[in-house]
């Protein structure tokens, strides 16, 4: 559990931030939450679409997990490149030193390896240079973040703010299991690798950005053919945002894509849950036990992702 005065290590496992001013603003934003900050050297580097070389990006993560003075690790931003360093993580050291680890989007790949291989919970939630520094960083997202990282109490119901679309039941029923998943494209990119997602008896979280509906169809079909949808206890759909159809005449609504692939399983499924790339982001502890209550369209997190 994080407390005021704890030290956060900020890392850049994926894309770069080209303006140093953004990093400085991110540090200030983390400090405003009550923490001290150490910035990983890789946050200042850039190699094309990556924040430095693979060695540099992996080194910062390994160093912060090994450093007893660092209490939590926040990923600066997503982008591309996190899968490139999965096999470069020192999992033996990391598993002996579990810490709060925060990020989403491309960071999904690191959640998978830390949850499955290092055996501790991590947090799917907003990131410093992506959300913290924005003027419209929603109060909802801030409150959800602080509660998830700084309270040993179970999160309970993940409710939406009044200004967001209400959570709906896509397929009825109740389910209970550990939360797993995140970004759909990253989950599919790791199929057939040692870090492939394990959905057996779990509640699968799915969201994405910049993906045409036909590509969402393709990605979900990959999970279907791999048995990952069948094995899940239930499914929770977040936001699929910021895309435009290439050809209007071939357009198929995302609702139709999701329903045609997911509904045949007759599993409990919720949609419009506030996680993903939209404005309102709940911070969800991956690996924590949760419950889908389809009769009341509720996602309830039954345990905390941190300990006192």
UniProtKB/TrEMBL annotation:
Lineage: Bacteria, Candidatus Moduliflexota, Candidatus Vecturitrichia, Candidatus Vecturitrichales, Candidatus Vecturitrichaceae
MF annotations from Gene Ontology: carboxypeptidase activity; serine-type peptidase activity
Limits of the LD-carboxypeptidase C-terminal domain: 176-292
Keyword set includes Ribosomal protein: no
Keyword terms, alphabetized: Carboxypeptidase, Hydrolase, Protease, Serine protease
Catalytic residues in the record: 105 (nucleophile), 207 (charge relay system), 277 (charge relay system)
Pfam families named in the record: Peptidase_S66 (PF02016), Peptidase_S66C (PF17676)
UniProt superkingdom: Bacteria
Listed GO biological process terms: proteolysis
LD-carboxypeptidase N-terminal domain: residues covered: 8-125
Family listed: Belongs to the peptidase S66 family.
Name listed for the protein in its UniProt record: Peptidase U61, LD-carboxypeptidase A
